[in-house]
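We modelled the chain as a single entity of 335 amino acids. Its sequence is:
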Amino acid sequence: MGVAFGVFDHLDRGKFALGEHYQNRLRLIEAYDAAGFYAYHLAEHHGTSLGTAPSPSVFLSAVAQRTKRLRFGPMVYVLPMHEPLRLIEEVCMLDQLSGGRFELGVGRGQSPYELGCFSIGHMEARKRYAEALQILLLGLTSEVLNFDGKYYSYADVPMTLQCVQKPHPPLWYGVTRPESTAWPAKNKVNPVMNGPSPYVRAIVDRYMTEWKASHGDNAALPKLGTTRHIHVADNAATAEETARRAYAIWFDSNAELYRRYGTLPLHFPSTYDEAFKREMIVVGTPDMVRDNLKRITQESGTNYVLGRFAFGDIPPERVLRSVELFSKEVMPAFT
């Protein structure tokens, strides 16, 4: 099974001025495009420096115009925070602006504090998500939108915009537990998983069981994704020094809103050493990174790695060098 590579980006603030930060990232995304990455996936966060793209569509419209072949999309649109009709229209616009390169990630949101910014409780978010997803898929595949639910209602709304990709852009979904794999597997949704390889493997195995039950043994598999912080340098010491400092800054952003309420996020190690031990951060020379990623993909059963190449305070030129080394000396070993 071959392995493809994409990019996952929180667009965390780090130590950069905001306008400069956006321009640096767009320049980096042009490098992803030239280097042959499959897709760029952008997180949505609110009320925290972990994510400076709270409106993913705005930033992704710039990505559409700065790239030629790179696919892109949110990972994920937090559906309870979006008005579904407006989101349908944004999805269609982005798919058209990019000539059919849009990837559609959906989710209900993991942070209760971010949902709270919109006065939405956790249980309400689950119910809003179910309605919003139904409306989103209905609107993308219908000429007229009709829906009457608890949270949203539409009557005879013309769907004047359409996507290039039919019936709609590919779907993506973050999966955190094996028992959550039934819906994405049945509906051919690309799953993405965080965590150490044994944890991810349990989800992948369950997904594959659900997949075969719905589609048999011969259907082409979706991308089974896992995320990793990745930093490549010409020597191991430089790579570790850079990544260690940057990971601490990134985790501070990740924990920022949680600490305000006396808690910590559960899904990522709080220290570089623990992240490295659990292979959630892959750092070193091209040979070291290549060997570690081979082991990770084999042990986890995944066929798609989403690298966080830009995080914390890594200077743009160092990220560009990391991406250059990765694309020239790591990626070819997996094709």
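As a brief sanity check on the tokenised model: The longest strand covers residues 225-232. The chain has a mean pLDDT of 97.
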